[in-house]
Structures are given as structure tokens and as C-alpha cells.
Amino acid sequence: SPAPPLSREGHFTVNFTVTNLLYTSALQNPNSKKFIATKKTLTYLVSVSQVPLVAMFLLVLLFIHCDLTGFLSWQLDQDRDDTGVDAICSYRDEPSDRNFSRVTVYHELSNMTNGINKLGHYNLNSQSLYING
Length: 133
Hints:
The chain has 133 residues and is of the alpha+beta class. The protein has 3 helices and 6 strands; from the N terminus they run βααββαβββ. The protein has helices at residues 33-49, 51-56, 102-112, and strands spanning 8-18, 61-77, 80-93, 118-119, 122-123, 130-132. A 4-stranded antiparallel sheet has the order 2-3-1-6. Strands 4-5 form a two-stranded antiparallel sheet. It is globular. The relative contact order is 0.28. The model is unreliable at 53-61 (pLDDT under 50).
């Protein structure tokens, strides 16, 4: 009999903009205290936010983790620079009839961030969430 198909690991990117975190040069330096603290906090919030997806996709999708890869200056307003956030998330795609859907992830993250407005104590630009699978 043929061997059962193996699950495979996949990745997708998540991008969003935080409007109450002023972008500064410290966020360019991966060794700065501000970079390290902000990365730790946002990584935790992004990971916690996705926990319900594990239950929803129990047989389809198992999240492993999200890793923030960096911050960038995002100017939505001429008076200040907001902080763009880039993350790479990993998941395990289990063999089944359903495949990873970035549309589903987008809708779930939208629901869990109050319409792409809040992530913990951070305010989000509601037009900034982008999922690329």
C-alpha cells in the first residue's frame, strides 16, 4: 500500500502598519534595545492572535511561529513616519482536500484585530494588512 502523504512546511508573509509607534532610527538597528523590545512584543502579539487559527484548521493547517523580520518607515501622514512591520510565518500544511488560503488568514486576522485596527496596545492602519502566501 502507498505511504500516506507527508505534511509539508510552508511560509507566508504578513505586513501591516502601526500608527502609534513612531518610526525612529533605533528600529533600523537589530541590536538596539528599542528594536529588540518592539520585535519581542509584536512577535508575541502576532503569534497569540493566530492561536484560534490552529483550532480552525486543526486538520489542515498548524501554525509553527511568526518571526518579525524588520521594521520600515511608512509615511501615511506628512508630519510623521509610522512603522511598517514585516513578518514571516511558518505553517504545516497537512494533506487534505483544503490547502493554505491567504484569503482565510487575512479574514481571520482582520476579525482578531477588530477590523485591522488594534493589536494589543498598538493601533493599526486598517488598510495596511497584507498577506502573501
